[in-house]
């Protein structure tokens, strides 16, 4: 799960799929998914969508992975469904209610009509993507694919609403629940993150709260590490999944 769309995971999935079935979900308001028919874009709304998706595809137990806003959504769901969670992977995300000023600026941008329209337009999304990689360069076809699901003003408004709908109370629940998390945890992050500048602090705090978590920092890599280092990220996540997939096979 990620902000914008599951397209960001395309270079990572094949490695993981060597060890387990892989499903990439566009949550309501993101990528190819529509705006929800009822409710909004809070934690409970996204969790209803996750539960409905998993029921539709017949999956009960799984490992979840989240990037950016997908991180707190995945972690919140995992903490509420401990019996279903085989593992949790976090990539350049935010988990705690102590938000960096950059997060407040992002929310203000998406809540203000003029700046919201500018950021969610193709040029704005391209600028955000470029800011999210260490060298500031991405191919034109990648930028076009990221913007493609948000082709009209209604789609862009929905994206903006989805990007700012998570309640602070949900982050407080995550912070309170993390020390009780028993599932394996794998965190991988780019250290040169201009979108979430405090991601290193977030990952260090995660390590303190969940001592069994394994954390890898990728130098010279930014927010969209799936774009910059897909092979390396894929290998790390594949090894993580393989570790408990093998254990599961050994018990049957």
Task: Explain the overall architecture.
Helix 3 (70-80) packs across helix 9 (168-177) and helix 6 (122-131) packs across helix 7. This protein has twelve helices and four strands. It is an alpha/beta fold. The protein has a four-stranded parallel beta sheet, with helices on both faces. It has a domain at 6-97 and 167-250: Alpha/Beta hydrolase fold, catalytic domain (Rossmann fold), CATH 3.40.50.
The count of helical stretches stands at 12
Mean pLDDT: 94
CATH architecture classification of one domain: 3-Layer(aba) Sandwich
CATH superfamily of one domain: Alpha/Beta hydrolase fold, catalytic domain
Overall strand count? 4
Intertermini distance: 30 Å
Structural class: alpha/beta
Strands of the biggest beta sheet: in what spatial order?
1-2-3-4
